[in-house]
Specification:
By secondary structure, the protein is an alpha/beta fold. The chain folds into two domains: 4-165 and 302-371, Rossmann fold; 173-294 and 378-401, Response regulator (Rossmann fold, 3-Layer(aba) Sandwich). It has helices spanning 59-76, 97-109, 122-135, 149-152, 173-180, 193-208, 227-236, 247-259, 280-283, 303-316, 322-341, 346-353; strands at 4-5, 45-52, 80-81, 84-92, 115-117, 139-142, 159-161, 184-190, 212-219, 240-244, 267-271, 291-294, 357-360, 363-367, 374-385, 390-401. Strands 8, 9, 10, 11, 12, 13, 14, 15 and 16 form a nine-stranded mixed β-sheet that branches. Strands 1, 2, 3, 4, 5, 6 and 7 form a seven-stranded mixed β-sheet that branches.
Length: 410
Amino acid sequence: MPSERMSHEKRSIKCSRRKFLAGSGAAVGASLAGCLGGGSGGSESVKIGFVLPFSGTYSFLGESIVNGVKLRLDQQLGGEIDGRTVEYVRQDTGADPSTGASITQEFLQSENVDFLVGPVSSAVAGAMKPEIASAGSAIWLNANAGNYKLVSDNCTKYHFRTSFNTWQTSAPLASFINDNIADNVVLSYANYTFGQQSKNLFREEFEDVGGTVVDEIGAPLGTSDYSSFLQEIENSGADAVFSFFAGSDAVNYIKQFDSFGLGENMTQTGSGFLLSADTLPAQGTGALGMYSLLHYTPTKQTDRNQAFVDAYSTEYDATPNVYACQGYDSGLAAEIAVTEAGGTDTDTMVSGLAGAELDSPRGYLKFKESTHDPVMDMDIRQVVETDDSIQNEVVETLSKVEGPTWGCSL
C-alpha cells in the first residue's frame, strides 16, 4: 500500500531535549524513515506505520487513533519533528493476528518504518510482538492493546504502551467500590481474554481490600440477549456489580440491565469501556448513576484536556474519545523520542523515551522505565445528565497509577 505523504512548510525551532512539553505548542519538527546512526542521523524523514483495523467492527477505533496521531504531528507540529518530515504508511489488520504479523514484517523489512502504531486487538499485538523484538529496528507505540501479558511474557524494550493495561482499567476501582458503594459484588463480563483478565484482576484486588465476590457470570462475546445472565446477577443477591463489556455488547448489556430494573437494588460499576463516550449516547438515561474507571474522560475539566478537545473538535468535527487520546499520545511519544535522540536511531530513541513524561490530555503520563507501560492518572467517573447530554463526570482522579511489573525488567 502506498505511503501517505504530507507536505507542509518546514519549521526549524530549537528546543531543550528533555524539558520540552509535547503539547505545550512548542514547534519541534518531525523526522521519518531509516536513519542509520545516532546523533543527528542521516535521514530527513520519520516514517510511521499504522498497523490498525480500517475495516470491520473496529475500524472506528483505528481511524480515531490515526486522527489523534495526525492532530499532534501534522496539525500542531506542521508535519515535522526536529526538522524531519513525517511520513505515514498504513495497512488494515482487521482483527486478524496473522495479517497483523505480516504487515509488521513488511513495515519493518520493506518500508523501514521508525515507529509502529497499533494495533487495537491484543491477539494481533501478540502476533506482532516477536517480529518487532527480533528486528529491533523500530519503536512500537502500542496505542490500544491492553493485555498485561505483553509485558509479563518476554518483555521487549521496543514496546511502549501509549494506552493502558488490563490491571489499570479494573483493579484500582476496587478500593473505591469497597469504601463507597458495597463490600460485596457480583462479576459480569464478556467471556474472552480481556474480559477474563479484567474480572480476575479486579477480584484479586477487591478481595485484598476486604471485599467479597459472591459470583462470576460470563457471557459470550457478541451476546444480544442478556436476560438469562441478568437473572443470575439478580439471584446473586449482591449489592453491586463490576463488569467488563465494550462496544455493542456494553450498549446491549446496560440497556437490558436498566430494563430489568436491577439498578433499583444494586449499583452497576465497571471498566471504563462499559460506559464510554462512544457507548453513552446509545445507552441513554439507563446508564445514569453508574460508575466506571478509565484513563481518559473528554469532559475532564483541565486546561490541557480542554485545549485538546477544542483542537480535535475543530479538526474533525467530533468529540475525541479514548482511542483518539491514545493516538495523540503516540504522536507525543514519537516527538519526544526523535527530539531526545536527535535522529531516528532506534536504540538511542528507546533510551530517550524510557522514563519520559508526556504532556497528555489524560493527565499525568510517564513510561515506567522497567516495563515501558504507562504510569498515569486514572479517572473514577459517574454517569450524569446535563442540559443536553448524558456524560461521565469525574468523581475522583487516582494519581500516578502504576500497576505490577509482572517480572519484566528492561
